[in-house]
Amino acid sequence: MFNDTIRPRRLRTSPVLRQMVRETRLSPESLIWPVFVAEGEGIYQEIPSLPGQYHYSPDQLYRMVERARAHGVSRVLLFGLPKDKDELGSGAWAADGIVQQGIRKIKALAPTMYVITDVCMCEYTAHGHCGILCGHAVDNDQTVARLAQIAVSHARAGADMVAPSDMMDGRVAAIRAALDENGFQNVPILSYAAKFASSFYGPFRDAAGSAPAFGDRRGYQMDWHNSREAMRECALDVQEGADILMIKPALAYLDLIYQCRQRFDLPVAAYAVSGEYAMLKAAAAQGLLDEYGAMCEAAVAVFRAGADILITYYAPELADAMRKGDIG
Ligand code: PBG
Fold this sequence. Notes:
This protein is α/β, with parallel strands linked by helices. The chain contains 11 helices and 12 strands. The strands form 2 sheets. Strands 1, 2, 3, 4, 5, 8, 9, 10, 11 and 12 form a 10-stranded mixed sheet that branches. A two-stranded antiparallel ribbon has the order 6-7. It is globular and about 70 Å long.
């Protein structure tokens, strides 16, 4: 039975009213832009699997800084592409490693840009796995010791925050202890707390040259059937001293973003990964959907689910959309 005094459409009658009653509010301050720094010189190359994203050698990072500034994006997440790889991934903690060079360069160009670094080994190991191998398996405890070393080397180079993405057990505690011992008590840890063994990382692995040479990552990244286990991972990271919890990927995991928001008091971040971006790009290139509208809708969904922070390749475009009032 229709009670015709109750008409939800009344609040949808004009843009000024719709904007007033929006339940989800967004701002560019909550966006983090992933950036790929490549060892070498004169490299400014569009990444084929991620149209609109680039590999920048340190001398070309001014282009990234200019683009970020033009759109009002002031937080980046750095990934490194080293020239050489080895069994141990030793480039990851080298004082003059590519991420370390990238941090210094960005800080020199733009001291107020907030630089977060991805702490992992897969871009640096010859086998492409996220840690030190023992046979064909990644050895947890040896890897954790290296991750702590990597985090400290990033902090030494000037990183503002570190983000371990490896999914080893106990790495947040080890990284916290190592940072503290080295005088970096104020460098927060953004933990990839619930990171799933996802097919949506495909374009990233092309972009970062980090696909595993054999096997897959299911021995450390999570099985996407599991949500209770995801909450357990978050709880462990809270205990170990994480400052921010991340759910990754984003769009196929909105239920976990929601649960994480309900259960924990820490800020919640979500990572809209390479496959989420590449899907929209590919569909738009074929004229199948309106890229701008779909980008906005997907981003709002993540915040509506409860995220405080969104890591996204669309950060520049989303910042513009927020400023224009199309979202937020
Ligand atoms: C490194 C890492 C990956 C991503 C972020 N950090 C790849 C992976 O785990 O295979 C994926 C990011 C993306 O797809 O955008 N371990």
